[in-house]
């Protein structure tokens, strides 16, 4: 039955940045679909742990700051998950940061911080996950891209560069790994109401300009992304490779 192919029972997922915002919604949804969920991040994921546990799934917290972790430390983090939860079937590279400043004033520190979290960590975690998944001939990697994977954005050059690169990396890994049973895809969220976009929503003119450009007529909610994530994490997406799935209220169609 097709709906059974969306189930994630017995799978192990690793979600980065799962303590709040989109990551919390995705971690909860994966657990609702049946997966055990490891949470990798630097903040307190207690709220998400409670949600996953309430669903009867196992959780594991891996404390890691993606801005400073070395590639070896990220590989160790993946190994901690496989050792404690018995494997790794799904990696969601969700954690992200943003620095808003005009390009001419964008500091090298801001550039480095954003690229480390939003791009470098995505590669190093995907590589470590791939090394576990490829010999088993199965696995799902979901990267969280952005509208700024397609557009230049306003005053966020490091974020835009990283999110464009995430799409390129998604396709590059998919090219290599599709034939080996590992699906690598991305979700490109539109404008979602989280802490990431709080400054935009606090600016009355900017908030209205964004909302009026969204065909759906409203900002997205983190839960709007959960169906796409469960789909890409599941057997239902077994022939989907290198795709970038916009969940954007129609923003890109405009
Ligand atoms: P958010 O509420 O600001 O959450 C960001 C998450 O990333 C938090 O869990 C945060 O952990 C984590 N993170 C940031 N820096 C980290 C670091 N150095 N080490 C470990 N974890 C770190 O933002 P969000 O909107 O949910 O964003 C989630 C993803 O969606 C990001 O990749 C973002 O770029 C992407 N996205 C968001 C939107 C949107 O409209 N909101 C649109 C497109 C794409 P802490 O709590 O410890 O800071």
Description:
The protein has helices at residues 21-32, 46-54, 71-85, 108-133, 157-177, 198-202, 204-213, 226-233; strands at 12-16, 36-41, 59-63, 90-93, 139-144, 182-189, 244-247. By secondary structure, the chain is α/β, with parallel strands linked by helices. The protein has a 7-stranded parallel sheet with strand order 3-2-1-4-5-6-7, sandwiched between helices. The protein binds NADP nicotinamide-adenine-dinucleotide phosphate.
Outline the fold blueprint.
Layout: E1 12-16, H1 21-32, E2 36-41, H2 46-54, E3 59-63, H3 71-85, E4 90-93, H4 108-133, E5 139-144, H5 157-177, E6 182-189, H6 198-202, H7 204-213, H8 226-233, E7 244-247
Parallel strand pairs: 1-2, 1-4, 2-3, 4-5, 5-6, 6-7
Helix pairs in contact: 1-2, 1-8, 3-4, 4-5
Bound molecules: NADP nicotinamide-adenine-dinucleotide phosphate.
NADP nicotinamide-adenine-dinucleotide phosphate (NAP) binds next to helix 1.
Taking all residues together, what is the mean pLDDT? 98
Shape: globular
- Give the ordered list of helices and strands: EHEHEHEHEHEHHHE
The main sheet orders its strands as 3-2-1-4-5-6-7
Q: Given the helix and strand composition, which structural class is it?
A: alpha/beta
Poorly predicted tracts of residues: none
Most strands sheet: 7 strands, parallel
Spell out which ligands are present.
NADP nicotinamide-adenine-dinucleotide phosphate
Radius of gyration, whole Å: 17 Å
Number of helices: 8
Number of strands: 7
How much of the sequence lies in strands comes to 5-15%
Share of helix among residues?
A: 40-55%
State the end-to-end distance: 36 Å
Organism: Luedemannella flava
Keywords: Oxidoreductase
Domain Ketoreductase: 11-213
Protein name: 2-dehydro-3-deoxy-D-gluconate 5-dehydrogenase KduD
């Amino acid at each position: 039955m097709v709906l059974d192919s969306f189930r994630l029972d017995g799978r192990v997922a690793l979600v980065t940045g799962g303590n709040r915002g989109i990551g919390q919604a995705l971690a909860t949804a994966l657990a609702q679909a049946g997966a055990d969920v490891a949470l990798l991040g630097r903040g307190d994921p207690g709220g998400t742990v409670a949600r996953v546990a309430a669903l009867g799934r196992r959780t594991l917290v891996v404390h890691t700051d993606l801005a400073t972790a070395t590639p070896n430390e990220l590989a160790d983090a993946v190994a901690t998950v496989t050792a404690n939860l018995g494997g790794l079937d799904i990696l969601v590279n969700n954690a992200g940061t943003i620095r808003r400043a005009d390009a001419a004033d964008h500091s090298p520190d801001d550039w480095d911080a954003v690229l480390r979290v939003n791009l470098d960590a995505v590669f190093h975690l995907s590589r470590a996950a791939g090394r576990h998944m490829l010999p088993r001939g199965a696995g799902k990697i979901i990267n969280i891209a952005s509208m700024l994977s397609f557009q230049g954005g306003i005053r966020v050059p490091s974020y835009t560069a990283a999110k464009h690169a995430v799409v390129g990396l998604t396709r590059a890994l998919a090219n290599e790994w599709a034939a080996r049973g590992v699906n690598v895809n991305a979700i490109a969220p539109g404008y979602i109401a989280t802490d990431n976009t709080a400054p935009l929503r606090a600016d009355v003119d900017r908030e209205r300009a964004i909302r009026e450009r969204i065909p759906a007529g409203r900002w997205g909610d983190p839960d709007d992304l959960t169906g796409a994530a469960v789909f890409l994490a599941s057997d239902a997406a077994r022939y989907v490779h290198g795709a970038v799935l916009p969940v954007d209220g129609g923003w890109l169609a405009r």
